[in-house]
Amino acid sequence: MPETPMLFFKNVRMVDEDCGDAVDVDVLVADGHYRKIAPGQQAPAEARVIEGKGRLLMPAMFDAHVHFREPGGEAKEDIESGSAAAVNGGVTGVVMMPNTTPSIDCGAVVKTVLDKAAAVSPIQVLTSGCVTLGRHGKELAAFDAMRNLGVKMLTDDGDSTGDPAVLYRAMLYAKEFGMFFASHCEVPELAGPRALTEGAMAYRLGIKGSPPCAEEIIIDRDIRLAHAAGAPIHIQHVSTQLGMETIQWWKDRGDVKVTAEVAPHHLMFIDEDIGDFDTHYKMNPPLRTRNDNEALLEGLKTGVFDLLATDHAPHTPFEKAQDFTSAPNGITGLETAVVSMFDRFISRGELTWSDLVKRYSAEPRRMMGLDPVPVVEGGVAELILFDEGAETTFSTEFMRSKARNTPFLNQTLKGRIDFVMRAGVVLLER
Ligand SMILES: [Zn+2]
């Protein structure tokens, strides 16, 4: 463990959720905690001074939907490389998805991945567990054993849990265990080859598209089941306006505990970006339309979406180089989320830093039963520094993920993460 430094951030703009305007302050950090936050301080002689002019200091992010592919998919990513990618993107906590090989569906596999994380990862790594054994949709996974190891989220992510009777029974059990469901919503029969949305682009490329209703039907079904079971539910990676409105309708009723997430790519890209069969725009749920982009961004601002989550889905270059229907779904997101959200929305006044901190740092932690990490005196200094005036080029050299499957590959975007700290340790400094 490196020695815990005393740090003095001079003249930084401080950002937090629910703070209107960022304020310029000096921030003293010692033993991994904020000791004093005030303007015009004198730096202690033993402190290392970090010039903060032009930089923002804010809570580090937390991503409640990542695929680290371990065990079984280590050619794409593993817990160590995934954690390095997270740090590179200003993310200090994650929830891994259980669609690994073998699946994370019992105490033994949960213990294996959490032990590995404790050994190799400098960030907070949580795992979700499967709803059904092997994600086959038949028998329930070992909820109790997983719960005893700290698993809170249950999901068959990558697929819907097909049989509603199985899901309903699972919900009745899980609520007794204090666990909740995260639903990947899709009717497989409607989704076809799961390559892109139904519409003009699908016709042009000659591929059977997945209509929005393939997703919307299951959003409603799963919330309805949770309502009947009296169980909490989380809806993953919503991509359509009507799907979002369905969630809003249930939230307005107020008699079922629903949370929901949206991914950055569903706010930024549309099916036409696929262009000439570019598999860096292939994900599931697929990219939809500009109208959906705009509606979803509004939903992130107003809180229909409690959180932003990337669905970080690494694949090897070989896999992504296959033809469009054969290539696997998904793009990486951990390294690009904060910078791209700044470049596309915050720098244009369409979103505030407070919005981002709330949706990508505080709320995902709350959903997982963790405390947020606000910038307050006495609080834990789990923070990032962001330079709005700098740029980031997402080159192969820049990226720490094993994977390169992102539409931002070799693009230069506004903004740069300069510094990441967690548990008294400086994890990144540029
Ligand atoms: Zn996923």
Automatic annotation (TrEMBL):
Q: Please indicate if the UniProt record lists Metal-binding as a keyword.
A: yes
Residues forming the Dihydroorotase catalytic domain are 54-240
Q: Secretion signal: which residues?
A: none
The EC number(s) attached to this protein equal 3.5.2.3
Q: Tell me the Gene3D superfamilies matching this sequence.
A: Metal-dependent hydrolases, Urease, subunit C, domain 1
Needed co-factor(s): Zn(2+)
- State whether keyword Hydrolase applies: yes
By its UniProt entry, which InterPro entries does this protein fall under?
Answer: DHOase, DHOase/Allantoinase_Hydrolase, DHOase_cat, Dihydroorotase_CS, Metal-dep_hydrolase_composite, Metal_Hydrolase
Q: Which GO terms fall under biological process for this protein?
A: purine nucleobase catabolic process; pyrimidine nucleotide biosynthetic process
Name the Gene Ontology molecular function terms of this record: allantoinase activity; dihydroorotase activity; metal ion binding
What Pfam families does its record include?
DHOase (PF12890)
Assigned GO CC terms: cytoplasm
Keywords in alphabetical order: Hydrolase, Metal-binding, Pyrimidine biosynthesis
The family assignment reads:
Belongs to the metallo-dependent hydrolases superfamily. DHOase family. Class I DHOase subfamily.
Q: What does this protein do?
A: Catalyzes the reversible cyclization of carbamoyl aspartate to dihydroorotate.
What name does the UniProt record give this protein? Dihydroorotase
